[in-house]
Amino acid sequence: MTDLFNLSGRVAVVTGANTGIGQGIAVALAQAGADVVTVGRSPTDETRAMLPEGTRHHDIRTDLSTAAPAAGIVEEVVSTMGCIDILVNNAGIIRRADAVDFTEADWDAVMDTNLKSLFFLSQAAGRAMIGQGSGKIINVASLLSFQGGIRVSSYTAAKSGVAGLTKILANEWAAKGVNVNAIAPGYIETNNTTALREDPKRSADILGRIPAGRWGRPSDMGGAAVFLASSASDYVNGITLPVDGGWLAR
Q1: Is there a contact between 78 and 37 (Cβ–Cβ < 8 Å)?
Q2: Helix, strand, coil proportions of the chain in percent (round to 5)?
Q3: pTM
Q4: DSSP symbol at 241
Q5: How far apart are CA 113 and CA 133, in angstroms?
Q6: Whole-number pLDDT of residue 196
Q7: Which of 35, 97, 144, 157 is deepest in the core (most CB within 10 A)?
Q8: Three-state SS across 127-188?
Q9: pLDDT category, 166, cuts 50, 70, 90?
Q10: Considering only CA atoms, which of 224, 142, 217, 230 is closest in space to residue 179?
Q11: Phi and psi angles of residue 4, each rounded to the nearest 5 degrees, phi first
Q12: Mean pLDDT of 173-178
């Protein structure tokens, strides 16, 4: 049974892996045996130090606020690592403001990073994966793929779009050997939730609804990511899997 979750010899690309959820997923994939490519604007020294000794690692420093780097990222991964087996689209940003005050600049910034860049990187990876007859794409969605939230108009729109893209790519690529699924993290202790955790009322309201009784940790995403990246999920296509401490069940 453990062989189902063994990622030895597979090349996993994780965007936004310098901290938070991306870091937790990158470490978990490496612990399962994967070679890891980290992609993003920020240094990944901390993440690299957390990888198991002997992990084959490559870092690509690029700006994912536009779709321009997508094809080049996949080309570099294939030329450097030999192939691309797993893509985790985690990189994302958030902007908060009342809907009546939300600016076009904040709308575009979030949509470009969280949805447009995700699609075109998936497209580039999908071409390579279809060519080799196998691959796993894991998108990082959100609870706001299911709910509306407040004061995060573009983030909610983008994450709802991520859930939709996950379905359509699964529909087109499942028969070609490529599994496309998503993880929807709950309220996790990351930079994106600092404002919520520092607001005593909002933090108390959130904790009061989570059956698990705590904020999630980036490492809590690791098991779901390994499952969706491994042979254990070969007949799983198009799902958005909540990892939320029970939030949606409440």
Answers
A1: no
A2: 50, 15, 35
A3: 0.96
A4: E
A5: 28
A6: 85
A7: 35
A8: HHHHHHCCEEEEEECCHHHCCCCCCCHHHHHHHHHHHHHHHHHHHHHHHHCEEEEEEEECCE
A9: very high
A10: 230
A11: -60, -30
A12: 98
Residue with tokens 């090349």: 11
150 to 64, 155, 196: CA distances (angstroms):
25, 10, 12
Where do we find the tokens 């937790």? 24
Q: How many other C-beta atoms lie within 10 A of the C-beta of residue 118? A: 28
- Helices 20-31 and 222-229, packing angle to 10 deg: 50
Q: What is the pLDDT of residues 185-237, one digit of tens each?
A: 999 998 878 888 999 998 999 999 999 999 999 999 999 999 999 999 999 99
SS3 of 231, please? helix
Q: Which residues are catalytic?
A: 155
The H or E element spanning position 208 is helix 200-209
Count other Cβ atoms within 10 Å, centred on residue 242. 21
What's the one-letter identity of residue 140?
V
CA distance 124 to 237: 19
Residue 227 DSSP SS3: helix
Q: Are 196 and 203 in contact (CB under 8 A)?
A: yes
Question: Torsion over CA of 227, 230, 233 and 237, rounded to 10 degrees?
Answer: 100
Using CA atoms, how far apart are residues 222 and 165, in angstroms rounded to an integer? Answer: 22
Q: Beta strand pairing status for 178-185 and 135-140?
A: parallel
Structural contact between residues 59 and 35, judged by C-beta atoms closer than 8 angstroms? no
Instruction: Find out whether 101 and 154 touch, Cβ atoms under 8 Å.
Output: no
The single residue listed with the structure tokens 């997923």 is 25
Tokens of residue 102, six digits:
């939300």
Integer Cα distance of 134 and 173 in angstroms: 10
